[in-house]
UniProtKB/TrEMBL annotation:
InterPro entries: Cyt_trans-like, NadD/NMNAT, Rossmann-like_a/b/a_fold
Task performed by this protein: Catalyzes the reversible adenylation of nicotinate mononucleotide (NaMN) to nicotinic acid adenine dinucleotide (NaAD).
Protein name: Probable nicotinate-nucleotide adenylyltransferase
Organism: Paenibacillus hexagrammi
Domain of life: Bacteria
Gene behind the chain: nadD
CDD domains recorded: NMNAT
Gene Ontology terms for molecular function: nicotinate-nucleotide adenylyltransferase activity
Length: 195
């Protein structure tokens, strides 16, 4: 079984994440996609705006109704800073026989050489990279041992980010249809990102 892991801060999860996940699933022949919110992301200067519980709830709502998408709380349960190498070791231990691939957008592809212990990571998993407006999907810039582990899959470029959604909500605008309806309703009901 081949499982794609779509990790992120998901503050909040949005349609760009889901389109990327679905394109990766089909394009790379994944059996399932697991959506995995980070506890504390290692690479972001600011703490998430929503609570861990709220980010988890939104991921669950986003996955609802799709039997091939599954929310997993392995990083949230572990706590602390979510380093991918720790997560990968945990996943491989917990799910022997499952092969994992990480699904990442172009900004993260670019950032791969800076991932903590990337040389160990690429020995254990491969990556599926997708385009994102504002970023070049240029694998030539990557060292060979990393580049060899990245497969590219195309998607219609989606210019949505969680930052944009937080800003739009703060400004009192509408983010309807930029996030799944169940996520939109949750944000409205809980006044998320309004201040
Ligand atoms: P933020 O603006 O808070 O950084 P984000 O929209 O970048 O949020 P993250 O949770 O940081 O979302 O990203 C998780 C993963 O999803 C990363 O691999 C990122 O590249 C990918 N991703 C996010 N948005 C898109 C998008 N619109 N198209 C393709 N990939 C995306
Ligand atoms: Mg981001």
């Amino acid at each position: 079984m081949l499982v794609g892991i779509m990790g992120g801060t998901f503050d909040p999860i949005h349609t760009g994440h889901l389109i990327a996940a679905e394109r990766a699933r089909v394009g790379a022949g994944l059996d399932e996609v697991w959506l995995m919110p980070a506890n504390v992301p290692p690479h972001k200067p600011n703490a998430p705006k929503a609570t861990t519980g709220q980010r988890w709830e939104m991921v669950c709502r986003a996955a609802e109704g799709n039997p091939l998408f599954r929310p997993i709380d392995v990083e949230i349960n572990k706590g602390g800073v979510s380093y991918s190498i720790d997560t990968i070791e945990l996943l491989c231990e917990q799910y022997p026989g499952v092969e994992f691939a990480y699904i990442i957008g172009a900004d993260m592809v670019e950032y791969l050489p800076k991932w903590f212990r990337i040389d160990d990571i690429v020995k254990q998993i491969r990556f599926i990279g997708l385009g994102r407006p504002g970023y070049q999907l240029n694998l030539d810039a990557l060292p060979e041992h990393i580049r060899a582990r990245v497969t590219l899959v195309t998607m219609p470029l989606v210019d949505i980010s969680s930052t944009m959604i937080r800003e739009e909500r703060k400004a009192g605008g509408s983010v309807r249809y930029l996030v799944p309806e169940a996520v939109h309703q949750y944000m409205e009901a809980n006044g998320l990102y309004e201040s």
